[in-house]
Amino acid sequence: MKYFLTTAIDYTNGDPHIGHAYEKILGDVIGRYHRSFDGPTFFLTGVDQHGQKVQQAAQKTGVQPLEFAQRVTAKFLALWDKLRIQKDGWAATTDPRHKQTVQKVLQSLYDKGELVKAKYSGFYSVRQEQFLTDKERNEAGEFGPEWGEVTFFEEENWYFPLAKHKEWLKNFVETHPDFVIPEFRRNELINAIERLSGNLCVSRPKERLSWGIEFPFDPDYVTYVWFDALLNYVTFAGYLAGEDPSLPNFNELWPCRAHIIGKDILVPAHGVYWPIMLHAMGFPDEQMPRLLVHGWWNVAGAKMSKSLGNVIDPDILADKYGADALRYYLMRDNVVGQDSDFSEERLVMRYNSDLANDLGNLVNRTINMCRRYRNGVIASPPWNDPDLTAIRSLANAVIERYRQAFERFEVHAAIEAAWELVAKANTLVEQKAPWKLAKDPAKSELLDAVLYTLAETVRLLALLVSPVIPAPSAKILEQLAAEQIRILQWGGLPSGHQLGEHSPIFPRIAA
Ligand code: MSP
Question: In this predicted structure, what is the pLDDT of residue 99?
């Protein structure tokens, strides 16, 4: 079984912002962790190209929806390359393979009697692309500004009876504490299920919205964008794909170990529609995916929005500071599940203090001293120095904590664990003062042991930071000539190992 994880697929009605970038980096970091230290991994991400939002954005620009979606998709793809997102699959919802899966699923739900056609008259929110009921009215009895433009009409559509599966979903969520991480989001979902009633409208008449996947048994309709978008997770994992060699083997991937999504799309899309869709499609309980719900990045406490003019562009930041500095900041200054405040000053501060100072200095000093005192050749004599033994024990404990943190998706805690080792190793340099040992021939073995301990610690640290800052990590391993020594356990560097050339890796950013 491969470790399968996904992120949400991003709307192609506008340019990528820091929230999109954070989520893809989080997915990439978790994916890289599993690929490096666990086993075969498949990370799927992509773009949501259909629906009213895209059609409207295209209209404003005066181009066809497909062309518009493709232009925006190209921006996302270029940004993911720049940010070193290592994706194994690319879910673009206009892909003909996706259309085929969506149509097969609709047909099979129809054949099972899970879709019904009915007439509805009422209010509709264009922004949220959903029908509104009295539940959506605010205290003043109105549809608040969050719904954008609200129109009244009567329409015949296809409905998916959600309420029929309410008891199953309630029971499933209550008996599977792991279904939603973190815990408090699961409670939110349970409350939402209590309020669940009615049917989900899964079609839109073409006369109103043409930009979507056509209904296979009623060509006057296209598929509701969320129904289409959620199915990306199975299409691009190879579901119903037969022998198509361009898609993975579904049985090797499913169930998904983490759908990484923002808090705004847990209820109702991922927490209600998606499990009910899978259940109705015939997926048993043990084949349900898991949801990892992250918080939002705000700016000075406020939500990012075009109207406030506070939208943060990750492309500009990556050009200014480098992709790895941005990746490090987003992963270090956020507790997965909680909201964070974006601050460029903090990005610079984190980079200068954690990377340039703490880690950068340790790497510089270690490799420089090994070169100066031992021509870059490290030896590992037996030792019984308590300070060195303490570092070795700490390294093993840190690795354990790091692994546990990743299993709980707590990336910041994994980074914190690694930095405890950075700090201890920097202290060791001061304690042992290798420049003094080098002057005393009687301390030659101790000097060897200290240099070995530092070099091995730096090797382990390069591996520990590799999911978050892959490019600097690769440089450190290259300078240690340890690219091939990937074992995440003390003692990987053999005695007599020759280090490579050194050059500084984390130049300070002028504040
Ligand atoms: N297209 C839908 C998702 C379909 S998944 C089957 C969508 N797209 S989106 O572009 O609006 O959002 C994509 C992801 O980015 C979502 O998980 C969303 O929560 C996340 N974020 C959007 N703004 C964000 C922040 N400001 N901060 C962090 N993540 C945010 O929803």
Answer: 98
